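Q: I have 270 residues here and want to know how they pack in 3D. Can you give me a structure?
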Amino acid sequence: MGQIQGKSAVILGAASPGNMGQTIARLFAKEGAKVMVAGRKEGPLADLATEIGGEYALCDITSHAEVNALADKARDTFGRVDIAINTTGWGLLASLLEITEEQLDQITALQFKGVHHFLQAFVRVMSEQAPTGGSLISLSSATTKAIINNHAAYIGTKRGSEALIECVANDYGHLGIKANTVSPAFTESPMTKEGFATPGLVDAFLPRYPLGRLNTVEDVAYACLWLCTDTAFVTGQNIQPNGGLTLRGNPQASDVAAAVGAAMAKLQEG
């Protein structure tokens, strides 16, 4: 029997092949959950739902109406919602002086207002299930604990979403609702594909991980799985499945430039 056998789960942000949302959805289905995947692209969602024997729904987290419709659809389809996980994000690389007002509005809508929409909708649905409410997770980033250059808006909005999770945990725990943050570090995924292809970039990050390797999407998925089991007596926490990166901190821009420069020099010599 799976670790979350018979539970129902909604995974938002699962519309890109191979991303964290899809990895979590596959693991949760394998562990016995009934899974609804959601996002903005119907084709990949429909394919994934067919693969795992689940359901799918179109949803843009920046739309209050669409997120509420997703929560209602999941409740009506499954009878209750035991788990809801938000994996959406935008790795905006822009300094404080470079970012445009349009970009700032976009990332705030996605990583702060959107998370508020998500939590509001699923707390509403899970409140109906008291005293066995459910488990809420929003993915953040190790960068909120281990600051990195040129990510002020990204880090600021992610840190704000962590505060929202803490407030939900404090205010709705009496209804049986757990709320936690999971914070990956530099992870190979469709969102970071370009970065991993840059010679030397991984070399700048690798020494910062006490456990000797970068975290994977699977590491993140298993952390989420544990938090959603009945054995995890945990709420309001920021779980860091990133191999200890926050102990040493992220490399800074000068470190990255040096590592990339050294790698490029070797390639030219070769």
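Q: Anything worth noting?
A: The chain is about 45% helix and 10% strand. The mean pLDDT is 95.
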